[in-house]
Design brief:
Layout (H helix, E strand, L loop, with lengths): L9 H12 L9 H13 L4 H13 L3 H14 L6 H13 L3 H19 L13 H17 L5
Helix pairs in contact: 1-2, 1-3, 2-3, 3-4, 3-5, 4-5, 5-6, 5-7, 6-7
Length: 153
């Protein structure tokens, strides 16, 4: 936040904001990362990744209805597909909203994708395989979602 928190570049703003969304209490004050994510979304309103980041930060801030709306918009922008990150944050958001059946559906979808990717059976939409950093991020979010939904694997 100190180095890039004032950036005007949408991708840098999103990257910094996403780093702040990866773990609970990653930063003490979520207002700055939320503003960065909003800046990225304003610059590229049709970018589903930027919407996902904003939704994730809104979730971290406890703004669950707004997080759910933002994450569902990310899915819509991605032609209904979404990413495992979208699905994991949707699972946690739906759980916080008391919609456990929907939460479990999103978690199951994410787990299926992650397991297939871990077995090298799945690739990203562009044909690439998930990097070590992407796999690590997914594992962090997966563990958090499973713990929240009290799922043991």
């Amino acid at each position: 936040m100190e180095r890039f928190g004032q950036t005007e570049h949408a991708r840098f703003a999103n990257d910094v904001a996403w780093a702040c969304a990866l773990a609970p209490a990653a930063v003490a004050d979520l207002d700055r990362p939320i503003r960065l994510a909003e800046k990225a979304v304003a610059a590229e309103p049709r970018n589903s990744s930027y919407r996902n980041t904003l939704g994730a930060l809104l979730y971290r801030a406890g703004r669950f209805p707004a997080a759910g709306e933002c994450l569902r918009e990310a899915l819509r922008l991605d032609k209904g597909q979404g990413t495992p990150e979208d699905w994991l944050f949707l699972a946690m958001t739906e759980h916080r909203l008391g919609r456990d059946a929907q939460a479990r559906g999103w978690l199951d979808k994410a787990l299926k994708w992650i397991e297939a990717a871990n077995n090298d059976q799945l690739k990203w939409a562009d044909g690439s395989i998930p990097s070590l950093a992407q796999r690590t991020q997914l594992q962090l979010l997966r563990r958090e979602a499973e713990a929240l939904l009290a799922v043991s694997r």
